[in-house]
Structure formats: structure tokens, C-alpha cells
Amino acid sequence: MEWVDLVVQNGMVLTMDDQNTTWKDGYVGIKAGKITHIGAGPAPFRAGRIVDAGEGLILPGLVNAHTHAAMSLFRGLADDLPLMDWLENYIFPVEQQMDADFVFAGTQLACAEMILSGTTTFCDMYLFANEVARSANQAGMRCLVGEVLYDFPSPNYGPVEAGLACTEQLIETWRDNPLVSIAVEPHSLYTCSPDLLVQTQELASRHDVPLIIHLAETAAETEEVLKRSGKRPVAFLSSLGLLTPRLIADHVVHVNPDEIELLAESGVRVVHNPESNQKLASGFAPVSRMIARAIPMGLGTDGCASNNNLDLFGEMDTAAKVEKANTLDPTVMSAETVLRMATIGGARVLGMQDRIGSLEIGKQADIIVIDTYKPHLTPMYHPYSQLVYSATGQDVCHSIINGQIVMADRQLKTLDLGDVLAAAEEKAILVKQWIAR
Q: Of all residues in the chain, what percent carry a pLDDT higher than 70?
């Protein structure tokens, strides 16, 4: 009989494949980091290690398609403020004091939180991106990361002209890594000159990597871009040649029907961040209209300074309910739609759909198990509904990334939680000192 390295068994398997195939009393076999078998009943192989799902749910790991991991150290620092006040008077000044060690510690904290709440892949836009990549790699997490680029000096690479070289070095450093991928990441239209934006597009194209930007997040941004360029954000990006299938646009709140059509025709991918959009009063993205136009859609938490957590289960619940209330239509953003945004949809947005996002033979083994033996998950008529409307990150009991067990029975295996929390508390002392200056 064939041997595999690992089997996850004794649960309902939700594959999230194109047919939403489900296996009751199912199993997933894993060898050399990849899925080799999926089925139901007795497994037709032997396994070196068994993960018992305890009659719970087995599904793909969640994909947090937009966050700023190290900002976990800014959680609760400057709440209840407008976006530009929050950025210019608190976040940007504090970030100018950061160093590589600070970002590494913050990312470790974020990785611990994400693994414990079912996220196996995240897309990050932040400073000292090499430390983000190094921290995630050490934690065994899959990620797409990039160094944020803007028109003012960075505490990492210094003057603006050094930013592109910094990104190019990242691409070379992490090329062919099984967990870490690199993107080119200009911050936004209001922090990047047209010249810089064009250069980022050229760099991303030359290395065939994604280009990621915050887009049309607030009404103030739209007004500022219109004042500077005579065009609204989407049209302005189009005029620069940046609206391509390479582009991942984060937030995309203030867009009209014509702009949605332009995004769809251009093949742009979009990440929806409903909790951050609400907390910063940015508005309500027309997400169901974008989905109706077949724009690839993922789901993101944004950073902990504007959310204040990295729990994608809460984000799914919010995404579904807010859009129903905003459109006065209870049929939009079904549980299945939102769960797909957080799994295969997020993978598609990040360009990883051939590797992750669904449980299919040949894909990388990124898998989570949900413990359903709980009052708030009983009875279970519809698994998708329970996951979106009832489950929380605390219900995740096992997490596997690239075939490696990173959490078993709620215990982290790749990170020492005590050390991570102690390092975070030390960094918080620095933050308080920076704020007091």
C-alpha cells in the first residue's frame, strides 16, 4: 500500500474547487508538501502522521489578501480618527522611527495571530519588507510581500530613488522561495508621483511580478487626485498605463459604474477590506457590483491599526452583512461567495490559484481544520453558512502550510508564543516613547 507523509481525516472536506466538491467522512493525503489524495471513507494509503479532524470541517487555508502585518504593534494606538489625520499625524511619524527589528517582531506577532485564526497566506505592504519575508518564512507562512514606495524618504531605504532598487533586490533575494513571493508596491496615488508610478509598472513588468496599490479608498483621495490630474483615480491610473491584469487594487471604495467597467475590462484584481473601510469611515465599496462584472475579488483585513484584528472569519461575516444592508438585498454576498473570496478568490487575486486556495490533487497542502463540536456551531445544516456567520478564528484547531503542521490542537509549532508576546511588549514601550516626543 502507498505511503504518504501526512493525512488529515475524519471530517467533512470542503474543497472549494470549481464544483464546490464536498466529501463527508473525508480525508486529504499529503506528500512532499502537496495534496496527493482526496476522498471519503477508508484512505487507500498509509500515512506517516495522522491529523484527526474530530468530525469537524477540513478546508483550504484562508488568504488575507491585504494587510500590513507589522502594524499589529500599533493596535489601538490611534483609533477613531479620519484616515488622513490617522496617517499623517500618527502612523507616518511613528513609522519614521522604526527599524528592521521592530518590523520583524511585529510580523511575528501578526503571523501568530493569523495562524491561530486560520490564515495560511497573506499579502503584505509595508516597510523593511525583507524582515516581513524573513519573519513569515520562519513562521512557515506563505506570503506575497513588497516594500512600500512613496515620494518621501523611507526609514528603510532612504531617498525615494533607492526604493526601486530595494524592491529589485527583494525580488532577487526571494526568487524561487517556496513560501515567499515579491510584488512591487507603490503606496497610493496621493503619495506617489506619476513618474514613480510609471517606474513601478515598468519594474513589475520586467520581473513579471504583481503591482499592488491602494486605490480610491476615500472620497478625499478622489478629490485630491482629481485636483492634481483632472482625472478620477481609476482614469488617472489608466492614463499612466497601470490598469492591467498585473494590478492588484486594494479597497476600491469610491468607484462609479463606468470605473467598475474599466477595471473589469482591464483585468484588474481587487481586494475588499470592509472592516477597515468602516472603522476609518472610508465608505462602502460596491463589491457585489464588481463581483457581478467578474472582477477577481479577494478579502483582506488591512492592518491592526485600522481593524483591529487579523481574523478573516470576522471579515467574512462583516463583508456579507454590510453589503446586504448597503444594497437592501439579502441575497447578495452569499456565504458561499464570501468563503470563496477568502480562499480560492484570494488565491486568484494574488496569482496563486494554481498552487493554493482549493483542495485539489497537485496543489500545495495549505489546510485548516475547524472544530465544530461547539454550541455556536451546532446544529450544522449548511457548512458555508456556519463558517461565515457563526465561526470565529478561535474555532480553528489545526493549520497546515505547504504540508507542514504549523498549529496542532491550538498550539503553535513554528513560533514560541511566549517569546513573540514578550517581544511585542518590548516594542510597545518604544512606541509610547515615540508618541510622547
A: 100
Helix (H, G, I), strand (E, B) or coil at 222: helix
User: How many CB atoms neighbour CB 422 within 10 A?
Assistant: 11
Cell of 188: 497610493
Strand ranges in 127-186 using DSSP code E only, listed in sequence order = 142-149, 180-182, 185-186
Closest CA to 57 of 420, 270, 367, 365: 367
234-263 core/surface letters (b: 16 or more CB in 10 A; e: else): bbbbbebebbeebbbbbbbbbbeeebbebb
Q: Where are the domains of the chain?
A: 3-60+364-412, 62-349
The total of other beta-carbon atoms located within 10 Å of residue 351's CB is: 19
pLDDT in tens, 89-103: 888 888 889 999 999
| Interatomic CA distance for residues 81 and 281, integer angstroms | 9
Taking only the tens place, the pLDDT of each residue in 315-371 is: 999 999 999 999 999 999 999 999 999 999 999 999 999 999 999 999 999 999 999
Question: What is the distance between the alpha carbons of residues 44 and 26, in angstroms, rounded to a whole number?
Answer: 12
Question: Do residues 333 and 320 lie in contact, with contact meaning Cβ atoms separated by under 8 Å?
Answer: yes
DSSP 8-state class, residue 269: E
Please tell me if the domain spanning 3-60+364-412 has the same topology as the one spanning 62-349: no
How many alpha carbons fall within 13 Å on the CB side of residue 379? 1
Residue 83 pLDDT greater than 90, yes or no = no
User: pLDDT (tens digit, 9 = 90+) per residue, 201-228?
Assistant: 999 999 999 999 999 999 999 999 999 9
Which cell is 354 given? 494554481
Protein fold of 62-349: TIM Barrel (3.20.20)
Give domain 3-60+364-412's CATH superfamily.
Urease, subunit C, domain 1 (2.30.40.10)
